[in-house]
Design goal:
4 strands, mainly beta, 1 helix, about 70 residues
Length: about 70
């Protein structure tokens, strides 16, 4: 893979803390923390940042569908 061609979703219980760490480190925030809904309709609190190689990292509270 070439640099800057990846996107990763990471589950976090404290999206605001992750966002603040990125800001404090001088990182690039593409989307500040906000409430959203995924295609499944599931609600989540997320933020998206970009690393120095251009890869996207989304941190959010959505843990996937619950087993039924």
């Amino acid at each position: 893979m070439r640099a800057g061609s990846s996107a990763v979703y990471v589950v976090s219980d404290d999206v605001d803390a992750v966002h603040q760490r990125v800001v404090d480190a001088g990182g690039e925030v593409l989307e500040a923390p906000h409430e959203t809904r995924f295609g499944s309709g599931a609600a989540a609190y997320v933020c998206t940042v970009q690393d120095s190689e251009g890869n996207l990292w989304t941190f959010g509270t959505y843990r996937g569908l619950s087993p039924e």
